[in-house]
Amino acid sequence: MKALIIEDEPRARTLMCRLLQENFPQIEVAGAVGSVHETLDWLASHEAPDVIFMDVELSDGTGFDLFNQTEIPAPVIMTTAYDQYAVHAFEINAIDYLLKPIELPALRRAIARVEAGEAAKPSAKAMRSLLDSARKEKFLIRMNNRIVPVRTADIAYFYSEAKNSFVVTVGGTIYVVDDSLDTIAEQLDPQAFFRISRSCIIAEPIIDSVSRLMGGRLHITIKPGIPAETDFTVSRARVENFLAWLER
Predict the structure, then answer these.
(1) Residues 169, 156: contact at Cβ < 8 Å?
(2) Among 5, 14, 29, 78, which one is least packed by beta carbons within 10 Å?
């Protein structure tokens, strides 16, 4: 059985490779990629794998982008940081899942499903249903002994700095959030938010204009009245997907 690993975090990619190689002699890791573009190139130039391990959030988009751009040729096991509330969405769509950090018993269960033919090839429709049913409508911000609910519709952007994550609302309030941007990105509607860099996720309504920079990057000017607490530069690897997202 040949496996393709789609994971943008090098450490997580290495861990998955090691778990498979050390515990599943029947599985050969045929490839390991970290972005939408790399995955499309790999699928176009290699024999279809027997199973795909796919992270939801990739370096230049999401797993959902892959389903929009090509036919996924094998059963998919999602690797995700979703909370338990989203697990049911994976189950009803016949797509198996592994919650991070990945544990060996869960990995054994998922591979057993593939080997038994219980994990079907997912369709774009199933993937959309899966992701849409797992989106958060609000984030709970913990402040000492208080919990402040912030509606996702009121969020302007998320950013990270010095190993901390922050959320900025359209009203200009800034909160510290517990989750990493990787975890947050997986819980947002990809139609409404875009991760323009490793350190920033932006909401479409706050974008005022976009200008080109040297080196193929883009700079976003946000609408007046919203504090600019971070750099709004779209990294070069994400430019193409960002422009497609902006003009859809």
Answers:
(1) yes
(2) 14
Residues 37 and 83 in one domain: yes
Instruction: List pLDDT tens digits, range 158-197.
Output: 999 988 999 999 999 999 998 889 888 878 888 899 999 9
Q: Are 210 and 222 in contact (CB under 8 A)?
A: no
In three state form, how does the secondary structure of 47-106 look? CCCCEEEEECEECCEEHHHHHHHCCCCCCEEEEECCCHHHHHHHHHCCCEEEECCCCHHH
Per-residue pLDDT tens digits for 133-158: 556 788 889 888 888 999 999 999 99
Contact between 59 and 182 (Cβ < 8 Å): no
Residue 243: its H or E element: helix 239-247
How far, in Å, CA of 50 to CA of 2, rounded? 5
Q: State how many domains the chain has.
A: 2
Buried (b) or exposed (e) across 82-118, using 16+ Cβ within 10 A? beeebeebbeebbbbbbbbebeeeebeebbebbbeee
Look up the CATH number of the domain holding residue 193. Answer: 2.40.50.1020
